[in-house]
């Protein structure tokens, strides 16, 4: 990023991801400053060490000294506050999932177009060099592909919004987007859902979802769960080609990672040094905010994932 006055970030929410991942990334990033954080209690906001802490989300959106608003709120709060920030003329980085469904993503996209500002879904692993390398490799794969992607863990607290159906809870919305994005990177955004099954918990959210996606490029099986042992993986096979991302396939953070590739019978392991993909995301969004060229996750990609989530849930309900 070329030399500019630092891009001023304002946070809505000071929870786990904001405090552990994104706030340190803003502090470490080139060309960014954490100007203000809003939380229900300003004392919690102050723990993220912004220039100032407040207890009003609206105050952040309306602030003259904020360029980019980052949302780290429960899923059902994304739409109203994304729209509020965009209408105030701010660029927005919103935690995944961007919306509760594809219709919300379409509404947010239209608002960004009207305001002439940038909207980006904060799927931070998409900025990781290993993920970018996988996308590059997949572009050159010919022939039918067979892929698997999964993200599972146990131990969601009983009072957590992830178990509340009215707040956008469920494994599919929370972590399913990682596996679905991997499947769409493999198959293309035109993939359709052929089979889907869900196990619903006592609160009414899906605790486990599995699905098979198909496209002219092949098929992919995805699994996401709040009740299975912790595991992440992504494998792809095609004629003369194999690819494997070992655990953690999607959340490698500040640690080295590897990628196993077999091409025409020759195996190699590509290594990637320790990396903070949160910082790469923040720097890319900051660069785009001042007009520099930087890759950010396209909204059409976020929409494709949201549509696939919708379709999986629909197919699972008909089983």
Give a topology summary.
Layout: E1 7-12, H1 16-28, E2 32-38, H2 42-46, E3 52-54, H3 57-62, E4 68-71, H4 78-87, E5 91-95, H5 102-115, E6 119-122, H6 129-139, E7 145-154, H7 171-174, H8 176-187, E8 192-200, E9 206-215, E10 218-225, E11 227-238, E12 241-245, E13 257-263, E14 266-272, H9 277-289, H10 299-317
Parallel strand pairs: 1-2, 1-4, 2-3, 4-5, 5-6, 7-10
Antiparallel strand pairs: 7-11, 8-9, 9-10, 11-12, 12-13, 13-14
Helix pairs in contact: 1-9, 4-5, 5-10, 8-10
CATH domain class of the largest domain: Alpha Beta
The helix tally amounts to: 10
Task: Name the helix and strand elements from N-terminus to C-terminus, one letter apiece.
Answer: EHEHEHEHEHEHEHHEEEEEEEHH
Q: Radius of gyration over alpha carbons?
A: 19 Å
Oligomer: single chain
CATH superfamily of the largest domain: Dihydrodipicolinate Reductase, domain 2
Main structural class: alpha/beta
The CATH architecture of the largest domain: 2-Layer Sandwich
CATH topology of the largest domain: Dihydrodipicolinate Reductase, domain 2
Q: Give the overall shape.
A: globular
Largest sheet: 8 strands, mixed
Kindly, what is the distance between the CA atoms of the first and last residues, rounded to a whole number of angstroms?
A: 50 Å
Number of domains: 2
* Poorly predicted sequence stretches spanning 5 or more consecutive residues: none
Mean pLDDT: 96
Question: What's the total number of strands?
Answer: 14
